[in-house]
Amino acid sequence: MSSVLLTGIGELVTNDPSLGDGGPLGVVTDAALVAEGGRVVWVGTAREAPPADAAQDVGGRAVIPGFVDSHSHLVFAGDRAAEFAARMSGQPYTAGGIRSTVAATRAATDEQLGATLTRLVAEMRRQGTTTVEVKSGYGLTVADEARSLALARRVTPETTYLGAHVVPPEYAEDAGAYVDLVTGPMLEACAPYARWVDAFCERGAFDVDQARAVLTAGMAAGLRPRLHANQLGHGPGVRLACELGAPAVDHCTYLDAADVEALASSGTVATLLPGVEFSTRQPYPDARALLDAGVTVALATDCNPGSSYTSSMPWCIATAVREMGMTPAEALWAATAGGARALERTDVGRLAPGARAHLAVLAAPSYLHLAYRPGVPLVAETWGD
């Protein structure tokens, strides 16, 4: 295996407090990095860099860990731009729009779904994302959920079974029967393609008892739990996720003191999705309150055709800084190491010896420019396998 020396790094974010400035980002200035076999084998200052088989000088640019997008819905068909326009004209958001995507997804071919998935993953990579989680949830039949996860598994090992997204129209009068399907034949068909099990615990979707049944069945099948919760209003979802030991609970828009305490004491990551609040006109989550309480926060895009059709982690960082009370350093950590924590990964989200050589070279001298220059395509190059 040949080694590569990346040198001329004006600012290297490692997310390792034992390196560089000793802060949470472990920033090393005038830095270099050596990768071999797809792994980081050395980091430090350029003057101390060991020899390597090849070298690349990035000319004083900043280098950061590749973004870890721990929440996305990329297997779908159709378009909901008209729904977005209606919300921007004052109509309220409800979860019911998911059903229009379900109809389009069921009607699409594998080739059509795969083409959209491939396009969106490539779009993410151009913006510095090197690890992405992908959910099912727009099929809601045994066959359609299984094929969605089989397609997702082609692009990432971080696949999530979300049969409990909404109750499909054919079960509108018997939600209990649908939960039985989700926890029985659908789970059996989907588990071989999934690492995670998820549910949408929210009014208009699944109540806390139904969500508990879905997660516990998935856990019994060997899947790790996560949960959509507290997006549309206050509810028991966040505390359910903490009770079940879920590594992460996502949305967390409406929280009370008990929710925050449960997150802080359990270690469950609060994954915040600013694209949703932008698209739905809901209040943004209070990241500052979570961080001050000792909660681990992740940022993700929730890329989906209805409530958050963005694939840009840099945009999420800028929005979290402007609207959610995060500092630029906190937002970058949440979009990299925080996402890795939400996925129970130690090999991504950081640039230290032993980690995967997943990184983004910025067309800027510092990571601060991710928030300082919102909307500007600052990722000049992305490394990742």
Describe the structure.
There is one protein chain. The chain is α/β, with parallel strands linked by helices. It has 2 domains: about 5-65 and about 350-385, Urease, subunit C, domain 1 (Roll), CATH 2.30.40.10; about 65-340, Metal-dependent hydrolases (TIM Barrel, Alpha-Beta Barrel). The relative contact order is 0.16. The chain is globular. The protein has helices at about 80-90, 100-105, 110-125, 140-155, 175-185, 185-190, 210-220, 235-245, 255-265, 275-280, 285-290, 315-325, 330-340, 370; strands at about 5-15, 25-35, 40-45, 55, 60-65, 65-70, 130, 135, 160-165, 195-200, 225-230, 250, 270, 295-300, 360, 380-385. The model has no long low-confidence stretch (mean pLDDT about 95). α4 (about 140-155) links the parallel β8 and β9 (about 160-165). The strands form 3 sheets. Strands 1, 2, 3, 4, 5, 15 and 16 form a 7-stranded mixed beta sheet that branches. It is about 35% helix and about 20% strand.
Quick structural summary:
The protein is built from 14 helices and 16 strands. It has helices at residues 81-88, 98-107, 110-126, 142-153, 175-183, 185-190, 208-220, 237-243, 257-266, 274-280, 287-292, 313-323, 328-342, 369-372; strands spanning 3-13, 27-36, 39-45, 54-57, 62-65, 67-69, 129-132, 134-135, 159-164, 196-201, 224-229, 248-251, 269-272, 297-299, 359-362, 379-383.
